[in-house]
Every structure is written in structure tokens, then in C-alpha cells.
Amino acid sequence: DTEVTQTPKHLVMGMTNKKSLKCEQHMGHRAMYWYKQKAKKPPELMFVYSYEKLSINESVPSRFSPECPNSSLLNLHLHALQPEDSALYLCASSFGTSGDSGANVLTFGAGSRLTVL
Amino acid sequence: AQTVTQSQPEMSVQEAETVTLSCTYDTSENNYYLFWYKQPPSRQMILVIRQEAYKQQNATENRFSVNFQKAAKSFSLKISDSQLGDTAMYFCAFRDNDMRFGAGTRLTVKP
Question: What is the chain A residue with the closest CA to B104?
Fold first, then answer.
């Protein structure tokens, strides 16, 4: 299995809803990432988990809450979002966060397109 | 913090021709990694090629090659024999502790 799987592919939610984005990989990667990508912009790093511990939080608002239940799963819990949070949310994973370039290569999922009404 | 600059928002090339996408970066680190990722309309980010900063030899992957100039902090991507399937957004990326992307270059391959 050489894939990162993200569900759902599309999500529409109201500002008062609570929803979650899910990400799964079975490549034995120990680092997992959430990126946010607005239209025609590059991905922006949100969170990094390394060995199931949160190692980077890029000052993301608390309405986004990441969770890493185990080394294969990464969730992003969403609550009280704003319309400007509408974007493509990309999950990625890598063998590690340092070392040779093999460890540094990120494998991306196809993304979850979120629309906040 | 490191920055990655792609100065060409859009480019086009005729099928079978060669095109070069430019990328510059700024860092005080000596050990780092550079990547080119491709994002077609399907949205999936796909690794095109990677380069370790400590290696002087330029990386090559089939039709894709890089021109890595460490002193100039330049990392350009050359696509030879362009194909229609190469049409995509191309992002240059820099990594030491985390991955940072340039603004991207939208490449269109014309038949």
C-alpha cells in the first residue's frame, strides 16, 4: 500500500456544525501532516505529528483540532468554522522528519474539499 | 525562516518541446532537501524529483532534471519532450524540519 487515503472527498458544513476529516496510511510512516490549500495558492502547513506526538502547530485557530490516534491515522476535528476556512485540506505522511531524503519525501492524499456555509 | 520563490506564475510549452521552471530559495542552513511536486487538476500532489543539498550532482528522473546551484540558491526544473499529461501546477519545495512550498507555476502543454 503506497497511498494516503483521505475521507471524505467533499464536505459541506454550517458554521455551527462539528465534523472531522480523516487520513490513513499503511506505509509505516511515522510523521503525518495537515496542510490547508486555498485556490491557486500553495499548501500551507497546519500541523505535524511525529511518532504520534504533535511537533508543529503553525498557530492554527483552536476551531481546528488535530488528533493522531495511532501511527496510521490522523484526524482533523472541525468546530465553529468560518466561511474563510473553506479550502482543500491535504494530509501527507513521511518516514520521518529528518535524515536522508527518503525520510523527507512527503506522500500526499488527494485532499478533502471543505465548504463552510 | 526559509522562503521559496517561484517567479513564473504561468508558463506554456508546445508538446515535445523543453521547458524550464525556475525556483530560488533563501536559507541559512547547510543541510536541506529540495523537491518539485506536481499538482494536476485531480488535486493530488505528486513528487516529481528531489535533490539533497549535500550532493553536487543534479538529480534526473526520466524526462525531468534539475539544475541545482547551491551558492546561488537556485533549483530549476527542466522538462524535456513535454507531454500533455505534464499540464499541472508545479510547486518547488524546501525542507529542513518541515516542508515549505513556493507559490507555484501553472504549466500548460499545448498540442
Answer: A42
